[in-house]
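Quick one, probably user error.
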């Protein structure tokens, strides 16, 4: 039903497939609003969640999506595995696949790990975030949330503000949104914006007020302290001053602005609590749409059954 067997990233991913996933996700969103939130779509399918890096939202979201669709699931944690006894990544995964699984959801600190995995397993591989490369399911849920707000992604102006250099969310959103015809402006400290990023078809600004003036929606990213060395910006206080989304800053611009954040949030740094908890923030809608999006992706990649067949 989709043109690619795996979902590794949104670079070069067909627009019609992105739209099919989003449209299917809106169908599954209705399931999540029912009193009994379960369908038999993936009965008989086995999915393994391989998380080699911390996660709250993505992991729970995938696990819930699998349970809501009646799949059999196993979740693997690197800390309690035989990797600690010297077993390689390849041996670990091949042993798991030998147990007859249909799909692997992989989060890994190394960029390219999901692509590498496709070379030695037959199962469908879905990237749940690889290093500083891509986080395609996050971008799909972000685009679904934008479509829910604005009905259409074509011509929509989306600002992505924060640590662009270390953000797989930024890269997948850039690929996805530009493919869907949205305009993207990125913004952050010059030390956290990759050189030549304009070649991906985005505008660049170092002035957050310019982005807010221009945008219909902003996606606020956190500072990824765990991925960077020191010295890329002077202090948290200065970062907040220049790139933090505060009520005072929004008040300077008399406009409706939709605010997104993929989580986890650093309240008081890139976003103030008063903004994160306000009506203009759709952060928890993104989380709910994450479950629906992952249900749609699993359904479309695993050839799931509808309630009719
Ligand atoms: N948005 C996101 O990927 O969050 P987690 O790291 O908690 O999964």
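Nope, works fine. Designed sequence:
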């Amino acid at each position: 039903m989709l043109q690619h067997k795996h979902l590794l990233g949104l670079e070069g991913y067909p627009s019609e497939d992105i739209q099919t996933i989003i449209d299917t996700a809106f169908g599954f969103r209705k399931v999540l609003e029912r009193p009994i939130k379960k369908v038999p779509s993936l009965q008989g399918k086995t999915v393994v969640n391989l998380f080699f890096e911390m996660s709250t939202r993505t992991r729970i979201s995938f696990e819930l999506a699998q349970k809501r669709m009646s799949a059999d699931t196993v979740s693997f944690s690197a800390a309690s595995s035989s990797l600690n006894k010297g077993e390689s990544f390849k041996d670990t995964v091949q042993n798991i696949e030998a147990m007859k699984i249909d799909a692997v959801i992989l989060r890994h600190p190394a960029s390219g790990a999901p692509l590498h995995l496709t070379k030695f397993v037959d199962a469908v591989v879905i990237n749940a975030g690889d290093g500083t490369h891509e986080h395609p399911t996050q971008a799909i849920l972000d685009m679904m949330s934008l479509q829910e707000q604005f009905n259409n992604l074509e011509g929509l102006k989306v600002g992505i503000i924060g640590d662009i250099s270390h953000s797989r969310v930024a890269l997948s959103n850039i690929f996805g949104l530009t493919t869907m015809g949205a305009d993207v402006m990125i913004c952050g400290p010059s030390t956290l914006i990759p050189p030549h990023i304009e070649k991906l078809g985005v505008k660049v600004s170092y002035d957050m007020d310019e982005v807010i003036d221009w945008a219909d929606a902003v996606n606020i990213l956190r500072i990824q302290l765990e991925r960077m060395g020191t010295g890329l910006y002077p202090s948290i206080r200065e970062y907040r001053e220049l790139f933090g989304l505060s009520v005072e800053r929004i008040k300077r611009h008399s406009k409706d602005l939709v605010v997104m954040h993929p989580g986890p949030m650093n309240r008081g740094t890139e976003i103030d609590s008063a903004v994160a908890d306000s009506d203009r923030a759709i952060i928890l809608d993104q989380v709910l749409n994450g479950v629906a999006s992952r249900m749609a992706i699993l359904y479309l990649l695993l050839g799931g059954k509808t309630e009719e067949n």
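Residues 216 and 256 are 8 Å apart (CA to CA).
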